[in-house]
Write a structure and sequence with these properties.
Layout lengths: L7 E8 L12 H14 L4 E7 L2 E8 L5 H20 L13 E5 L4 H9 L1 H4 L5 H11 L6 H4 L2
Antiparallel strand pairs: 1-3, 1-4, 2-3
Length: about 150
């Protein structure tokens, strides 16, 4: 076969440093659009981006040439710089938490994950980010080490 084919859906989740609510609700759509643009520009088409003031969810297709940890590093550093430039507040710097969760999604579950990401605001009226992330890890049987999870 002379071609390389790949269709790997990834549900990526990470939070603000200390899970502080540092992304104003009025700026969420703009931040999400910027994140999608970064993924798209790096050959990883963003399907859905959403979240709340303290965390973000991205469903995207991992590009054939992409390295997951590099795309995460790129999106975190680019958005950190962009948000801090927009805020222009030397006394309040924005940072993402170290680490992330990346989970594979089957083609048959893409619509459900899109709906889940779109419903984040409503979802988090009942469930904290920490409990949400624990549940995702349990669903994927990913061992979450609580000693490091919430630093």
């Amino acid at each position: 076969m002379p071609q390389s084919l790949s269709k790997i859906y990834v549900h990526l989740v990470f939070s603000t440093k200390g899970r502080t609510e540092t992304i104003p609700k009025t700026h969420l759509a703009e931040v999400h659009a910027y994140v999608a643009e970064i993924f798209n520009n790096h050959g990883c088409p963003a399907i859905q981006v959403g979240g709340t003031a303290n965390h973000i969810h991205i469903l995207f297709l991992l590009g054939k040439q992409a390295n997951l940890s590099e795309i995460v590093r790129t999106v975190k550093s680019s958005t950190t710089r962009w948000i801090n430039e927009k805020n222009n507040n030397p006394f309040h710097k924005f940072f993402w938490q170290e680490g992330y969760g990346a989970f594979s999604v089957s083609n048959s579950h893409v619509d459900a994950v899109v709906a889940y990401i779109k419903g984040q605001e409503e979802h988090h009226k009942k469930v904290s980010f920490q409990d949400e992330f624990r549940k995702i890890c349990q669903l994927y049987k990913a061992e979450l080490d609580e000693r490091y999870a919430w630093d």
